[in-house]
Amino acid sequence: MKYVDEFRDPVLIEQTAAEIRRLAHPDRIYRIMEVCGGHTFAIYRFGLHDLLPANIELVHGPGCPVCVLPMGRIDDGMAIAEDPAVIMAAFGDMMRVPGQMGSPLERKARGMDVRMVYSPLDALKLAGENPDRQVVFFAIGFETTAPSTAFTVLRARALGVRNFTVFSNHVLVMPAIQAILDAPDMRLDGFIGPGHVSAVIGCRPYELVAQDYGKPVVVSGFEPVDLLQSIAMVLRQLNEGRAEVQNQYKRVVPWEGNPAALRALEEVFAVRPEFEWRGLGAIAQSALKLQADFAQWDAETRFAVSGLRVTDPKAAQCGDVLKGALKPRQCQVFGRECTPERPIGALMVSSEGSCAAYYEHVYLRQVAEG
Amino acid sequence: MELRFYGTCTLDQDGCSTCQDLAVPVRVVALNGSEALVEDRLAQRAWTIVDFVPDAKVGDILLVHAGLAIGRAREEA
Predict the structure, then answer these.
(1) Which of A157, A279, A283, B63 could be a cystine partner for A322, CB 3.0 to 4.6 Å?
(2) Does residue A74 share a domain with residue A59?
(3) What are A80-127's pLDDT values in tens digits?
(4) One domain, residues A82 and A169
(5) What CATH number corresponds to the domain at position A45?
(6) Furthest-apart CA pair in chain A: how many Å?
(7) Is the domain of A17 the same as that of A58?
């Protein structure tokens, strides 16, 4: 296939869906986790869940960085931004994530200087434009985004910028997958691996999942035929008793990843001993902080960060949804107290959060249809 | 090879972290050191850093995320 139209070709979609129905043995249930929030969004947007037989269950994974950020880190970031000398720069979706004292957007409405940026480089530019202020970049994201932050820190050092720091909340995909695999109530059969994270880290890290846990991993693109092909590839492996890493998204993902980006990550970041994930708890070696050499660009060194742990709202069952134990709609506050307009749980905040995607593309339609 | 083969994201819609794992496919129009002028499928243009795709050439399709190119389109292997 050479064009995206083919990846959305209704005939090809139906053929691949028919292949999946043929592969799915009626006497067993297949639970497949798509790790990446972008895949969750695409599955709902294109209605792919409607094409699958009932015994294939897609479990939405922890791949949305705003969704897994614990409330305590938002509050820590906001505590930094309370200093009137500070300009806090953050990606758009961070703005609506609820902390104990409100979301960054609500705090901005009350006078805090919080600005939305598209790239960490924009935050560095803000520092240049505001030499008498301290610009703090609230960094979030998996390995797709961390290289941009690493590059920006390297540039800040090269330019000798003194009024720019990074509050790093970058997290790593593999430790999260491992934590899910190690959970006692884990019932997954295979994984759809993230697409653009893998453009950076490559496919090799997932070999652990295949070799040590015996679960197939297929790295997938984001178009309907990509995802259906990947599901078929997982089914084929399961039916044949194989557990391998396969790359469906070869047109973007090299097996070895992006060596230049990986080098920058290694130079700038160190792995934290542990990091708190919303819904999954503390996971060892699952997040990145700045290396000691870059301490002067590290917000956690420059500012007092309390590191408070805040219990997530009990009413929202984000953790159970993240682990695949509950479907979004089975959460007790879904669609009533917790909506995209007023999220309680983090999975409702970003459009790639499994609850927000389900609400937007399935729930509202069902409500409209009565 | 068409840009759309690599996804439908455009430079103006990748403005926030909802796209954490989505990259914008763009074509390199011009190069200036480690920066490239790139164009998306709607012909919107922006400068992007290409340090992580060091041998990028005019005409290449790159994947841009948060202001930096993180990868390059590959021929079907």
Answers:
(1) A279
(2) no
(3) 999 999 999 998 878 888 888 888 999 999 999 999 998 999 999 999
(4) yes
(5) 3.40.50.11750
(6) 67
(7) yes
Whether A193 is covered by a domain: the verdict is: yes
ipTM of the complex: 0.89
CB contact under 8 A, A144 and B52: no
Rounded distance between C-alpha atoms, residue A352 and residue A349, angstroms: 8
Domains and CATH numbers, chain B: 3-72 (2.30.30.140)
What span, in angstroms and rounded, lies between the C-alpha atoms of A209 and A231?
Answer: 17
Is the model's pLDDT at A164 over the cut of 80?
yes
Whether residue A97 is found in the same domain as residue A152: yes
The verdict on A103 and A165 lying in the same domain is yes
The letter for the amino acid at A264 is: A
Write the CB contacts of A356 (distance below 8 Å, at least 6 apart in sequence): A340, A343, A347, A348, A349, A350
Distance from CA of A354 to the nearest CA of B (A): 12
Mention every residue, 6+ apart, whose C-beta is less than 8 A from residue A347.
A64, A67, A279, A316, A318, A321, A322, A328, A353, A354, A355, A356
Tell me if A275 is assigned to some domain.
no
Cβ contacts of A253 on chain B, cutoff 8 Å = 71
pLDDT for A234-258, tens place per residue? 999 999 999 999 999 999 999 999 9
pLDDT in tens, A45-63: 899 989 999 999 998 888 7
Q: Which domain holds residue A226?
A: 4-66+183-247
Cα radius of gyration rounded to whole Å, chain A: 21
Considering only CA atoms, which of A286, A345, A292 is closest in space to residue A315?
A345
Query: Which chain A residues touch B71 with a CB distance below 8 Å?
Result: 196, 199-200, 252-254, 258
pTM: 0.91
Quick check: is A310 in a domain?
no
Residue A289, phi-psi category: left (phi > 0), alpha (psi -120 to 50), beta (remainder):
beta
Q: Based on the fold, state whether residues A91 and A111 are members of the same structural domain.
A: yes
